[in-house]
Design a protein that fits this description.
The protein is α/β, with parallel strands linked by helices. It has an eight-stranded parallel β-barrel, surrounded by six helices. It is built from eleven helices and eight strands. The chain is globular. The protein has one domain: Aldolase class I (TIM Barrel, Alpha-Beta Barrel). It binds 1,3-dihydroxyacetonephosphate (13P).
Length: 249
Amino acid sequence: MRRTLVAGNWKMHGNSRSVEQLLGELKPSVAASAAEVAVIPPYLYLSQAMSLLADSDIAVGAQNVCKYRGEGAYTGEISAGMLKEFGCRYVLVGHSERRALFGETDECVAEKLAVALEQGLQPILCVGESLEQRSAGETLRVVGRQLQAVLQGVNQPLDDMVVAYEPVWAIGTGETASPEQAQDVHAFIRQELATFDRGLSAKIRILYGGSVKAANAEELFAQPDIDGGLVGGASLDASEFAAICKVVN
Ligand code: 13P
């Protein structure tokens, strides 16, 4: 049985005051949710989030991780070991914004995923096609390639991985994939995982991301291969995010 996960990716938003306010409102309002709830703040607010959530079941994740192991001369980077020491449970890997704006390749994404797993973090592998790729009928080819890079390139058990399907055209645009469009791609991802390892496929959670809000979450999460959501904009609003978490029961 896969437990539904609702994770809020704050991206590069917030300040100490807004973090305190958001988490203060969120804690009591998601306490009764059947979903596992996680917040993914910018690095600098991880410590604050961790203290504010010490008495709560809300998990904390990071938005990125260095692809290199251990410590070293990697100015500006944060290692998987540091994230683990800080108490992070999750780390996003291969978000489309990192692929598009920061030049992350499939190979780099696989390296990051491997170091995260080695340190006992649960990587959330983000995959998804652009509008041009969807229009050209290339959705499954692109998503398949992004997934295979990890399945073939990571040399260790993938049981702790989460996959997030985030069609780039649905991110921050207000345009959500229909439940059927999303389910089609999720079923494909599940099938690819099954071809790789049947047991893994039944276990791995596949989240949907891209303009998830309270008004569409219920229908999306009701799809057989959608195991929760990776929420951007709506996760910055405590009542909207709590309402998304509450559709899970
Ligand atoms: P939005 O929910 O703002 O579309 O962002 C989705 C996303 O990129 C989450 O990682």
